[in-house]
Amino acid sequence: MPMNQHGLSEAVRKLLKDSHTLIPAIAQDHVSGKILMLAWMNEESLAITLATKKATYWSRSRNELWVKGSTSGHFQFIKDVWLDCDGDALVLSVEQIGSACHTGELSCFHQNLLEISE
Amino acid sequence: MPMNQHGLSEAVRKLLKDSHTLIPAIAQDHVSGKILMLAWMNEESLAITLATKKATYWSRSRNELWVKGSTSGHFQFIKDVWLDCDGDALVLSVEQIGSACHTGELSCFHQNLLEISE
Asked: Which ranges carry the Phosphoribosyl-AMP cyclohydrolase domain (chains A, B) (predicted)?
């Protein structure tokens, strides 16, 4: 199915604070609760994510849609998608294939600032 | 202790991608793993958070430092602070007093988009 066939339902669009800005999307392992990464979504990437059940972000560095895992195979299969109370942040509950981080770590959040700042 | 006495260590500052922009900070319950909210930090709020062990954000709406819980009593006591691999997002592992969300819900993420978009 071509990507441009995906659109957000009116019910979802009304909940977004601003459908024209990028909003942070947190990927969380649906079993362990581990936070895997934070990336960004625009309306199109959210629509594709909801429709395909594969996490799809907007790459700020490449300025293009980014199906997580499309080159690495490390897909994130969607179990749930939660929007926050003011409509400007998302939690994706996912099944992570392989590791989320390009370093090979399971999670991108592996630098402990309390230890580093001691 | 006046807030302006807090500063980031050089070791932490070097890990930040850009110390002059706001970065998203995810608060997560340190026991259950539940994601509670997402707010924003600048360098000063991160320094205060690390020093005081109370989550302190930068309020984008009020344009000021925001010690979470200072009016509601719903403080977030810091257990760990994790920076991601590219230095532009944070996870705060916290003990949440009361609820994180102003609606009274424990978590701000309580709108299920898969259900809403059906």
From this structure: 37-110
Residue-wise DSSP of A9-32: -HHHHHH-S-TTS-EEEEEEETTT
Domain total of chain B: 1
| Chain B environment of A117 (Cβ under 8 Å) | 8-9, 11-12, 50
- Closest approach of B74 to chain A, Cα-based (Å): 17
> Is 0.90 topped by the overall pTM?
yes
How many helices and strands, by DSSP H and E, does chain A display?
Answer: 3, 7
Residue owning tokens 């199906």: A67
ipTM above 0.90, yes or no: yes
Is residue B90 within 8 Å of residue B24, measured between CB atoms? yes
First-to-final CA distance of chain A: 52
Confidence of residue A11 (pLDDT cuts 50, 70, 90): very high
Q: Which domain range does residue A8 map to? A: 3-116
Chain segment B85-106, per-residue pLDDT in tens: 999 999 999 999 999 999 999 9
CA distance A93 to A33: 8
CATH number at residue A93: 3.10.20.810
Q: Which residue has the tokens 């998608």?
A: A81
The chain A residue lying nearest B103, using CA atoms, is: A85
